[in-house]
Amino acid sequence: MNALEAVAMKMIEKTKNFFSEYTTPQKLVVKSSKIGVLYRLYQLTAIPYALWYVALIGGHQETDTILSSVTTKVKGIALTNTTELGEQIWDVADYIIPAQEDGSFFLMTNMIITPNQTQSKCAEYPTPKSICTSDMNCTKGFKDLQGNGVQTGRCVHYSESVKTCEVLGWCPVEKKVEPPNPALLADAENFTVFIKNNIQFTKFNFSKTNILPKMTRSYLANCALKRNMDPDCPIFRIKYIFEEAREDFQTMAVYGGVMAVQIQWECNLDLNLCAPQYSFRRLDKKGPNSSEPSVHNLR
């Protein structure tokens, strides 16, 4: 019998067995209380774990990184009355510098006022580089990066007892003094900031915004006043942000500071759940005597 005939015979035998034989699994019963208890404990442990892993923590789910964009808009009006400026109304065009930033905003809360400035020539503010006794101490065209203009080459009186190099710039020059305390725009704590956040999970082709369909104009006009009852409101009073971060606005407003608004999205697309959670904290170190240099002073 050659190899081909042997293979054919085996196939014929298997075909006969397939139609003439029937196999059933054998069941073995072990009468042991210890083994029975261990087996049931295993079942009681495995089943809850499977439910917890799948249903509660979504162990069966896929994940994706989030794409996010944030835009902000600040609103509010403040009235000040100073010796230098008299009564003045401040609106968003005055205290938001610059007008638009990506994912952030700069809110001016305080300022050192130098009234009636014009481009002209005047004595520089006294510093080691500007104090002089004669024209020989001044260099025409010299620009001090910490100064207020370009030196003309003349040494002039800053006061009766002090002479400094004359500069061409905005005159009179700004004085290096402590900022007002309380802050000029102390009322800024009542300003509001509207935060719009758009997100996308590209893997699942899912997009969402924190502006919900229910948020009409009338809703947005009032929801910031009742945040405790409406946590979905995307408008925040400045004072509320500081309170949530456990910071005092009036103290920070004097010298400035950096605050972070964190938006954490908790999403379970299987359950059609996707909502933002807001939190706030301060990023810079506190106080004018901090070792961290101030970067909040803009001219």
From TrEMBL:
Q: Which GO terms describe its biological process?
A: calcium ion transmembrane transport; response to ATP
Kindly state which reaction or reactions the protein catalyses.
Answer: Ca(2+)(in) = Ca(2+)(out)
Bilayer topology reads: Multi-pass membrane protein
Provide this UniProt record's keywords sorted from A to Z: Cell membrane, Disulfide bond, Glycoprotein, Ion channel, Ion transport, Ligand-gated ion channel, Membrane, Transmembrane, Transmembrane helix, Transport
A single Gene Ontology molecular function, please? extracellularly ATP-gated monoatomic cation channel activity
Name its cellular compartments.
Cell membrane
Q: Which GO terms describe its cellular component?
A: plasma membrane; postsynapse
Q: What is its main location?
A: membrane
Q: Which family does it belong to?
A: Belongs to the P2X receptor family.
Q: Which NCBIfam families match?
A: P2X
- The name of this protein is P2X purinoceptor 4-like
Q: Which organism is it from?
A: Carassius auratus
List the gene name: LOC113047077
